Fold:
Amino acid sequence: MPLHPTTPRTRRFVACTVAVAALWAGGAAAWARGEDDHERAQQAVQAGQVLPLRTVLERLEREHPGQVLEVELEHDGERWLYEIKLLQADGRLFKLLLDARTAEVLRSKSRDHNGSGGRRPPR
Structure:
């Protein structure tokens, strides 16, 4: 189902994507004022609840090298989570769920170039 640009889900996705981009760049000036999602994410970084994306990606690169295709920052009510999709050199697509405070991989799922794949427990 495609995302419609005016739905709350789409606006939330766009806001989180922008927030993640600002986290990655490390620039607090990039945060849009008045956006609740941005402010919550920025406060979480400042409070130490969320690692900057750059730090998370540096840690992730050691065990899961590849090209980052998509990053989402979400709050599930208990903790902040990074959902990261990356493409490895051998054509496998990985979807990883990380604790945003520790960069611990909580869940990973891979799919190779022909569509087969499976879940892998975190290392």
